[in-house]
Amino acid sequence: MDGPERSSTGKFCAKGVNCPDGSVRYTPGRKDSPLTVDRLNALLLACALVLLVAVAAVRLTSRSGLPSLLLYLGIGLLLGHDGLGVDFRDAELTQVLGYAALVVILAEGGLSTRWKDIRPSAPEAAVLATVGVLISVGVTAAAAHYLAGLEWRAALVMGAVVSSTDAAAVFSVLRRMPLPRRLRGLLEAESGFNDAPVVLLVVAFSGLDGAGAAQGAERWLVLPGMLAGQLALGLVMGLVVGRLGELALRHVALPAAGLYPIAVLALCVLAYAGGALVNGSGFLATYVAGIVLGNARLPHGPATRGFSDAMAWLAQIGLFVLLGLLAEPSELWRDAWRAVVIGGALTLLARPLSVVLCLVPFRRPWRDQAMLSWAGLRGAVPIVLATIPVGAGVADSDRIFNIVFVLVVVYTLVQGPTLPWVARRLRLGEEGGRAVDVDIESAPLDRLRGHLLSVAIRENSLMHGVEVAELRLPPGAAVMLVVRDGESFVPRPTTVLRRGDELLVVATDQVRDAAERRLLAVGRGGKLAGWLGYGEPGEPGEPGER
Question: Are 240 and 267 in contact (CB under 8 A)?
Fold first, then answer.
């Protein structure tokens, strides 16, 4: 046989064992199907074409407002068993590759998250990612049991699978929306934090079967402590790896600029592996390490963020296409009504209830709460998590997978395009004309014990119209070159900076941080940065922190 055989009682069978109907599951690596050079050529051709189509399709999704995941899922369905005939049914391989893709996506989310944006809302995000998830799980599981007819174990698994907001969907959709910083930061932080507890809950609920009453009660009692311990270990591992990686990369000059992005991404993966090996939450460790490294002002920061963004796009495309291959449209519609009912309970009841109850101590305005309730996007994470009960042999695991797949597609179509409309109706637009930071990239000058800072003045930066002398850089830092309209020149103290200029600033190790803070301060406050509270050389660059 050329692929896995379907069991008469289940869609997938555990690896290396006989299916209930006597068929044996396909095991990769058999001698009669080696990966030859010819097959490799065909595989590379197919992958390249899929990637090119997916990249071109991003333009379509950006214009329509739809999350790109829907298009990638559609490509997978088109290539799959009921489409062009690609026979892929390996749920375990999908789970493994899904975990790997989620690590990359969470790492990019952490690296591109500004701590100053999420710091005010970090406590709220932590509560939503823990208590809020538990509330959503309970309400959704009750709806799945009483309204959709699932057994309690399957209902609990269903509630846990769909109760987290998806990091990839939130990062890709909300960052293009003009939301206030307080809301965007809270949604990004929540989506990065809540994957960890949800994964732990899905694994725990999937393993509850087969135990006696006493043993089952004991597991329920120790579950909260186990979850708290794993989250704490993941948090500590992420902080340790991120901080040690920051110290190393800031003081070691690598021979090539391209090595810095690789090292940073490798550190995020190291945090995941280290957290998982000590029985902690690897996903939380990855996201925390990414935040630490992304806010550390490492050399070649913009290049690192660009590299991680490209890797996250690649992970998303591969993951969504793979999930589309795993699904079969002919079977999805049998449980479509259950997906609509459970998704409705999640979107209209469980999510708003969890937001309202969790944010009571923080006194959020009702408009913020309404937006947070509607912006709980689901994406690839629930579909990946739906493969966990398959491997655990949970009853109705096929039905869980089908329901989750349809739920994600339907409610992404409903919520994604309507988010801008909801934001406008709630009058939650980003403050108009807000100044943006300048882009600063640092390259170490090892032998000179200094740094070369490349500063790009963006469109809304208030550095426009400032003279070089008015930058008031600390002693030991100076603007050496200005590139304007493709031409470079050595500036004078009276040279007026303009939008689109690129500056080359040389700073010694001792004043590098102070120079960066001063440049950021002038970019936000202009000539009056000091008067407006944006800091002076050597002081923090945020208003109100002096």
Answer: no
Distances (CA, A) of 7 to 3, 22, 28, 187, 392: 13, 8, 18, 41, 16
Does the pLDDT at position 323 exceed 60? yes
**Is a pLDDT exceeding 50 seen at residue 162?**
yes
| Interatomic CA distance for residues 279 and 290, integer angstroms | 20
> What would the DSSP string read from start to end of 204-234?
HHHT-TT--HHHHHHHHHHHHHHHHHHHHHH
Check residue 2 and give its pLDDT: 43
Rounded Cα distance, 309 and 331, in Å: 35
Give dist(CA 434, CA 178) in Å, integer.
11
pLDDT given for residue 65 in this prediction: 54
C-alpha to C-alpha distance for 386 and 91, rounded to whole angstroms: 9
Do residues 497 and 529 lie in contact, with contact meaning Cβ atoms separated by under 8 Å?
no
> Which pLDDT score is estimated for 115?
84
Q: Which two tokens stand for residue 139?
A: 């309400």
For residues 103 and 368, what is the distance between their CA atoms, to the nearest angstrom? 29
Helix (H) or strand (E) holding 484: strand 477-484
HEC readout, 8-70? CCCCCCCCCCECCCCCECCCCCCCCCCCCHHHHHHHHHHHHHHHHHHHHHHHHHHHHCCCHHH
Residue among 524, 485, 512, 489 at smallest CA distance from 501? 485
Nearest by Cα to 101 from 379, 295, 374: 379
- Which strands sit side by side in the sheet containing 502-508, from one edge to the other? 439-445, 450-456, 502-508, 477-484, 487-489
What residue type is assigned to position 451 of the chain? H
Distance between CA atoms of residues 11 and 5, nearest Å? 9
Other C-beta atoms closer than 10 Å to the C-beta of 92 total: 17
* CB neighbour class for 150 (10 Å; exposed up to 12, middle 13-18, buried from 19): buried
Q: CB burial class (10 A; 0-12, 13-18, 19+) of residue 375?
A: buried
Give helix 301-326 / helix 91-111 axis angle, nearest 10°: 160
Query: pTM for the complete prediction?
Result: 0.72
- The pLDDT tens digits of the residues spanning 447-478 come to 556 778 888 888 778 888 888 888 888 888 88
- Strand blocks (E) in 209-360: none
Evaluate whether 539 touches 529 at the Cβ level (below 8 Å): no
SS3 4: coil
Please check whether residue 82 is in contact with residue 331, taking contact to mean a CB–CB distance below 8 angstroms.
no
**Cβ–Cβ under 8 Å, residues 174 and 167:** no
Angle, helices 282-294/259-277, rounded to nearest 10 degrees? 150
Residues whose CB is less than 8 angstroms from the CB of residue 533 and which lie 6 or more positions away in sequence, other chains included: 525, 543, 544, 546
Reported for 139-146, long-range contacts at CB under 8 A and 24+ positions apart, including other chains, are 139/345, 139/346, 139/349, 139/350, 139/353, 139/354, 140/342, 140/345, 140/346, 140/350, 143/341, 143/342, 143/345, 143/346, 143/349, 143/350, 144/338, 144/342, 144/345
pLDDT of residue 238: 93
